[in-house]
């Protein structure tokens, strides 16, 4: 059986890290814990340009450029450092925007003061300041996800926006979907994966992939009047977990649609504990494998390649349906058989059975040429790639480790998928790279 290498399945390797000085001395409070809380790559650059990212600590935004030149010992170049002069502000979120008139890149930051401040990335000047906050939008721009301390995840429908300036902001009073049944703790990260949803909460030690039954972004936008309110949802059984969910897409459950949401997969994120504000990032662009990245509270960066899940399913289907067991089968380079500790039967024949087993039942150890794999191999594959059990968390496909004292707060991918930057405690940023030899 031959195995092939596919560059699309390559996952990042930790290349280097850097730290910003402890900037808590600029805070007006007694906060003395230095941390990076968020990192975002600039989405407005051509893919063949060196990617630029912004990492945000409580008082600073640091703008950096990355180079994949293998001769560079440090691939990260600091372009600018912007400090928030407001003594009462401590930032924790950032995102990029652009002046559409002049093409200038701006960085937006938000934090405990409930303000959104917009800075010019080039000269570091404050451009504008708004009161409010934002979240993870659907790619259509018409739906918004939110999560919070009440362990509730909401799906909001964005109304048609006016073409002219208005004096009173538009208000959306109720979401079209709301649930507190997916997680049992504070929800600190939610994201769309197409029309599916990824979310995590502290204490759970998992990232969950799930879907809202009846929801499709291809359908017309639901009217605001159809958004369910707590007053018009009257559960008949208060022990029913379904009472924790309200949906305009499946208003009432029925035998044809017995649930309002479906849990699809879970990804195992150990050693997170009670830590709050730890956020994953999914790299999902056309013609590349979707890859999920997350860093726990022990400095471990986990990666899951979602394309591996469907590829594994196809491989197992091909094995089950093959009529010619002697025909060579190519396995992906990442799907390797596990050799049991017991000595393998090199003759590829059934090994002797134990006295309490049916002697007519063959037990194979590692008969690769005839598509028979050891139990260890099948179990190893199932723990990483099987989509059969939505409640059995999948183990990571790759792990990279840094300091055991590092707590990851946010991961971000460069637009081309080559770089993954993770920021967290001690104002430290980890730079991970793949395809370095390309």
Fold and architecture overview:
With 438 residues, the chain is mostly beta strands. It has a domain at 139-162 and 171-193 and 195-281: YVTN repeat-like/Quinoprotein amine dehydrogenase (Methylamine Dehydrogenase, Chain H), CATH 2.130.10. The protein has helices spanning 306-321, 375-385; strands spanning 3-4, 13-19, 36-41, 52-57, 60-66, 76-83, 91-98, 105-111, 115-120, 126-131, 136-137, 143-147, 153-157, 177-179, 187-193, 196-201, 206-212, 245-247, 261-268, 281-283, 291-295, 300-305, 331-332, 398-401, 408-413, 419-424, 428-433. The strands form 7 sheets. Strands 11-12-13-14-18 form a 5-stranded antiparallel β-sheet, with no helix packed on it. A 4-stranded antiparallel β-sheet has the order 2-27-26-25, with no helix packed on it. A hairpin with a 4-residue loop joins strand 16 (196-201) and strand 17 (206-212). It is globular, with a radius of gyration of 25 Å. Residues 234-242 and 348-369 have low confidence and may be disordered.
Using the coordinates shown, work out and report the CATH topology of the domain at 139-162 and 171-193 and 195-281.
Methylamine Dehydrogenase, Chain H
Radius of gyration: 25 Å
Order of helices and strands: EEEEEEEEEEEEEEEEEEEEEEHEHEEEE
- Total strand segments: 27
Treating each run of at least 4 consecutive H or I residues as one helix, how many helices? 2
Helix content, binned percent:
under 10%
Distance between the termini: 27 Å
Q: Roughly what fraction of the amino acids lie in strands?
A: 25-35%
CATH superfamily of the domain at 139-162 and 171-193 and 195-281, called what?
A: YVTN repeat-like/Quinoprotein amine dehydrogenase
Strand order of the largest sheet: 11-12-13-14-18
What integer is the average pLDDT? 82
The low-pLDDT segments are 234-242, 348-369
């Amino acid at each position: 059986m031959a195995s092939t290498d596919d560059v699309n399945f390559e996952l990042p390797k930790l290349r280097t890290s850097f730290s910003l000085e402890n900037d808590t001395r600029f805070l007006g409070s007694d906060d003395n814990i230095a941390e990076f809380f968020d990192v975002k790559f600039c989405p407005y650059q051509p893919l063949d340009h060196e990617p630029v990212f912004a990492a945000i600590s409580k008082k600073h935004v640091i703008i950096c450029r990355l180079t994949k030149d293998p001769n560079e010992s440090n691939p990260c170049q600091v372009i600018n450092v912007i400090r928030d002069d407001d003594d009462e502000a401590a930032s924790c979120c950032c995102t990029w925007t652009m002046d559409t008139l002049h093409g200038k890149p701006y960085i937006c930051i938000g934090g405990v003061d409930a303000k959104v401040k917009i800075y010019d990335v080039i000269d570091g000047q404050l451009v504008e300041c708004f009161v409010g906050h934002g979240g993870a939008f659907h790619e259509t721009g018409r739906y918004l996800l939110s999560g919070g301390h009440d362990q509730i995840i909401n799906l909001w429908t964005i109304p048609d926006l006016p073409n002219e300036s208005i004096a009173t902001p538009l208000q959306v009073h109720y979401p079209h979907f709301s649930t507190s049944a997916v997680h049992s703790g504070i929800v600190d990260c939610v994201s769309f994966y197409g029309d599916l949803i990824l979310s995590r909460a502290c204490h759970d030690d998992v990232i969950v992939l799930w879907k809202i039954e009846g929801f499709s972004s291809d359908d017309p936008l639901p009217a605001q009047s159809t958004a369910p309110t707590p007053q018009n949802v009257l559960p008949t059984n208060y022990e029913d977990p379904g009472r924790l969910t309200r949906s305009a897409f499946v208003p009432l459950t029925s035998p044809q649609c017995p649930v309002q949401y479906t849990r699809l997969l879970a990804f195992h994120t150990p050693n997170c504990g009670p830590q709050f504000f730890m956020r994953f990032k999914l790299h999902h662009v056309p013609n590349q494998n979707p890859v999920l990245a997350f860093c726990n509270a022990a400095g471990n960066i986990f990666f899951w390649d979602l394309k591996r899940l469907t590829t594994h399913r196809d491989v197992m289907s091909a094995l089950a349906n093959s009529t010619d067991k002697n025909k060579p089968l190519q396995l992906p380079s990442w799907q390797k058989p596990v050799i049991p500790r017991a000595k393998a039967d090199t003759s590829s024949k059934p090994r002797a059975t134990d006295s309490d087993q049916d002697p007519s039942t063959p037990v194979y150890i590692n008969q690769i040429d005839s598509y028979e794999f050891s139990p260890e191999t099948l179990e190893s594959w199932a723990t990483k790639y099987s989509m059969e059990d939505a409640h059995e968390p999948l183990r990571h496909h790759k792990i990279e480790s840094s300091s055991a004292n590092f707590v990851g707060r946010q991961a971000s991918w460069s637009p081309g998928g080559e770089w993954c930057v993770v920021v967290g405690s001690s104002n430290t940023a980890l730079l991970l790279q793949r395809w370095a030899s390309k």
